[in-house]
Write a structure and sequence with these properties.
Blueprint: E1 27-34, E2 40-44, E3 51-56, E4 66-69, H1 77-81, E5 88-89, E6 95-99, E7 109-123, E8 126-127, E9 130-135, H2 152-164, E10 175-181, H3 183-202
Parallel strand pairs: 5-8, 6-9
Antiparallel strand pairs: 1-4, 1-7, 2-3, 4-6, 7-8, 7-9, 7-10
Length: about 200
């Protein structure tokens, strides 16, 4: 029996086993961990590649868009250097939010996402940027080119979510949003995260 190439005898790890995307850094794959319906924080387990529940949300805030990460990216020194007030990258794959017209009720899949901007985020002074993208060929959002073309209220909801999704009542907030990133700035972050991954895992310089 012959198999098509590439063929994975076992399930590939979503972070390391998937490609970056069809045309990075502009058109990338987004592996989706969370949907707008989720009230617990799912997160990829770095060892096994399976989703696990990191924590229940401590507030009523829910993600206003699909949320996950770009495979084969890493927030290291290059990503950290793009954020003036960061001491380093957070050591995770680069996060991405994907806007789509159609409701999606499940996670743990990947899709084609076109980068249109982002949020420059600090988590305990580590760079934890959030790329914002639109689903490729989306019926409504497919022609958006830059974050400035998305509704202000949607960006406000994204900002509110990331300012509150780690909030524990009675404790000081650890998340800060420095600024919105336009598409050209977001592309630089994606490129930096790809280079950081190559150095961290593939021995690049």
């Amino acid at each position: 029996m012959t198999f098509p190439k590439p063929f994975y005898r076992w399930r590939p790890h979503p972070w390391h086993g998937l490609e970056i995307g069809p045309n990075p850094p502009h058109l990338v794959y987004a592996y989706i961990e969370l949907t707008p319906n989720d009230s617990v924080k799912y997160e990829i387990d770095k060892v096994t590649g399976y989703l696990h529940i990191d924590r229940p949300q401590h507030t009523s805030s829910q993600p206003p868009a699909l949320y996950g990460f770009i495979p084969r990216t890493y927030c290291g020194k290059r990503v950290g250097a793009l954020s003036p007030n960061a001491v380093r990258g957070d050591g995770d794959p680069l996060d991405i939010c994907v806007v789509t017209e159609r409701p999606v009720f499940r996670s743990e899949f990947f899709l084609n996402a076109r980068v249109v901007g982002g949020l420059q985020v600090l988590d305990n002074d580590e760079a934890d940027d959030k790329i914002i993208a639109v689903l490729e060929k989306d019926n409504y959002w497919g022609n958006v080119e830059d974050i400035s073309e998305l509704p202000v209220k949607l960006i406000e909801r994204l900002r509110h979510y990331f300012l509150t999704y780690k909030l524990v009542p009675g404790e000081e907030a650890q998340m800060k949003i420095e600024k919105d990133l336009h598409v050209d700035e977001a592309i630089l972050v994606v490129e930096a995260a790809i280079a950081d991954y190559e150095e961290e895992f593939l021995g690049g310089n």
